[in-house]
Amino acid sequence: MAMIGQGRLEAAYASLTPAYKGRVPFKEFKRVLQRTGLRQYLRSRPGKPDLQGDRVVLPVTLSLRNGQSQDLTVTFLREGKGWKIDDFDVAVFDR
């Protein structure tokens, strides 16, 4: 999320899983970030992670530059020795 807040959208997109990028092309990813206000990311406060094998579901509260906060759930998938974002909570995108 820090990359998004810094305007490094290409780097943020590169950190997503191939499956997510297959579902959401870069152009749509940028539109989603704009539509949801997530480009205004300032800092995050993670909740309790739910480990599900090679997946982690993490609730996160984002603080935005406009003073508002946004709750979302991020799903991470283990890839090799690291983790990549595989999905965002759908409710965030329907805001």
The CATH architecture designation is Roll
Number of domains: 1
What is the name of the CATH superfamily? Answer: NTF2-like, domain 1
Helix content: 25-40%
| Shape annotation | globular
What ranges have pLDDT less than 50 throughout 5 or more consecutive residues? 90-95
Protein name: DUF3828 domain-containing protein
Organism: Synechococcus sp. (strain ATCC 27144 / PCC 6301 / SAUG 1402/1)
Question: Would you give an account of this structure?
Answer:
Strands 1, 2, 3, 4 and 5 form a five-stranded antiparallel beta sheet that branches. The longest helix is centred in the first third of the chain and has 11 residues, at 26-36. By secondary structure, this protein is an alpha+beta fold. The protein is 33% helix and 39% strand. Mean pLDDT is 86; it is low at 90-95. It has a single domain, classed as Nuclear Transport Factor 2, Chain: A (Roll), CATH 3.10.450.100. The chain has five helices and five strands; from the N terminus they run ααααβββββα. A hairpin with a 2-residue loop joins strand 4 (69-79) and strand 5.
Distinctive features:
single chain; 95 residues; 39% strand; disordered C terminus
Secondary structure elements and their pairing?
Layout (H helix, E strand, L loop, with lengths): L1 H4 L3 H6 L3 H6 L2 H11 L4 E6 L3 E3 L2 E10 L4 E11 L2 E7 L1 H4 L2
Antiparallel strand pairs: 1-3, 2-3, 3-4, 4-5
Protein name: DUF3828 domain-containing protein
Tell me briefly what this model is.
With about 100 residues, the chain is α+β, with helices and mostly antiparallel strands. It has five helices and five strands; from the N terminus they run ααααβββββα. Strand 3 (about 55-65) and strand 4 form a beta hairpin.
